[in-house]
Design goal:
Radius of gyration: 20 Å
Strand order of the largest sheet: 1-8-2-3-7-4-6-5-9-10-11
Bound molecules: threonylcarbamoyladenylate, magnesium ion
Length: 354
């Protein structure tokens, strides 16, 4: 048990003194949570095997699920990988700093434990002043998975980080809610054809404009469990993003979806279960259940993405047994939202028809 230091900062212009305290902790092998533009990350010196081992332990993360390494400058990627191809350079130029993680062949300086023994690494440069300032001040690349206990929804506020990790980590830089609220897009550049392993903050449509042949790995769509014997992204085989309640996703035409969800809600309520409904502004008035929450308007999928993890955590605090979630369109940020919802449900997906 250790006391977790909370360092409050202005996210755009973080107080250098607090950043220096956090950076010293990282350099000394400690664990520091910090905001990025996507979600809060739990940072440790990527090149310090003991620190990384502690990081896996603090999160309860299986050791075969590798970490994303965060750099403070575009140039810093070259020391971590074998080769930055022309295509990768183009992606870095266009999307960094930002929510795009690239999988590349790694160089030997990265310890095995950081990459779970793989010959590739995941690397990104975040677009958040606090994150960048911490990485640069630490003077080392920072490995940072999302700062939640393994299997819980990712944290979008410092409060969420403390809910999961208080007394297990050295400090958290509290820079308020994270702007995107959804993790980065993970793009594998080591295969012949680039493929998205996890949809996220950089929409697939934006990648396709730059990489004509990019494709979606089945796990990115997550319509069903698609765990091959040797998954491309080791994280794919774990149940993720899950609240404590049992989640069912209802997909299809909107009228049919609303009807099906209300019918399921009535069924479960009759059995004495506490039911939560996760819906949208357009439909919220049509439901009757114990707890009904809206992700925002269907016309604004970036807001929907921003709200998802916060609402899943709120349902847990309300103690619901069941969450019935509306499917939303899988374009733009919607693809990442549907990926997380389907995985949270353990692929319990109902297709609503008349
Ligand atoms: O937005 C984000 O990406 C956040 C913030 C903190 O940057 N980080 C994050 O990290 O979401 P994490 O550890 O929760 O998710 C990393 C994902 C996992 O699915 C992992 O399996 C995958 O990236 N990954 C890491 N290294 C990989 C590799 N070498 N090959 C394939 N997948 C890899
Ligand atoms: Mg995570």
């Amino acid at each position: 048990m250790k006391k977790t230091l909370v360092l409050r900062v202005n996210p755009q212009e973080p107080d250098l003194e607090k950043i220096r305290i956090a950076a010293r902790l990282v350099r000394d092998g400690g664990l520091v949570a910090f905001p990025t533009e996507t979600v809060y990350g739990l940072g440790a010196d990527a090149l310090n095997p003991e620190a990384i081992q502690m990081l896996f332990k603090a999160k309860g993360r299986p050791p075969d699920n590798p970490l994303i390494i965060h750099v403070g400058n575009k140039e810093d990627v070259s020391g971590l990988v074998e080769l930055v191809t022309h295509k990768c350079e183009m992606l870095i130029e266009k999307f960094w700093p930002g929510p795009l993680t690239l999988i590349l062949r790694r160089s030997k300086i990265v310890p095995d434990v950081t990459v779970s023994g793989l010959d590739t690494i995941a690397v990104r440069m975040p677009r958040h002043a606090t994150a960048l300032s911490l990485i640069r001040e630490s003077g080392c690349p920072i490995a940072a998975p999302s700062a939640n206990l393994s299997g819980r929804p990712s944290p979008t506020t410092a409060q969420h980080v403390l809910e999961d990790l208080e007394c297990r980590i050295d400090a958290v830089l509290d820079g308020g809610p994270t702007p995107i609220g959804m993790e980065s897009t993970v793009l594998d550049m080591t295969a012949d054809q680039p493929q998205v392993l996890r949809p996220g903050g950089t929409p697939f449509e934006s990648l396709r404009k730059v990489l004509k042949n990019v494709k979606l790995h089945p796990a990115a769509v997550a319509y069903r469990s698609s765990v091959p014997n040797k998954p491309r992204s080791p994280g794919l085989k774990y149940r993720h993003y899950a609240p404590a309640a049992d989640v069912t996703v209802v997909e299809g035409g909107l009228t049919a979806v609303v009807g099906k969800i209300q019918a399921l809600a009535d069924f479960h309520a009759e059995k004495g279960r506490r039911v939560g409904i996760l819906c949208t502004d357009e439909t919220i008035a049509q439901y009757k259940a114990e707890v009904v929450k809206s992700l925002g308007s269907r016309k604004d999928l970036s807001t929907v993405a921003q709200n998802l993890y916060r609402l899943l955590r709120e349902f847990d605090l309300e103690g619901v047994d069941i969450i019935l979630a509306e499917g939303i369109p899988s374009r733009g940020f919607g693809l990442a939202v549907m990926n997380r919802l389907r995985k949270a449900s353990g692929f319990k997906i109902v297709n609503a028809t008349y």
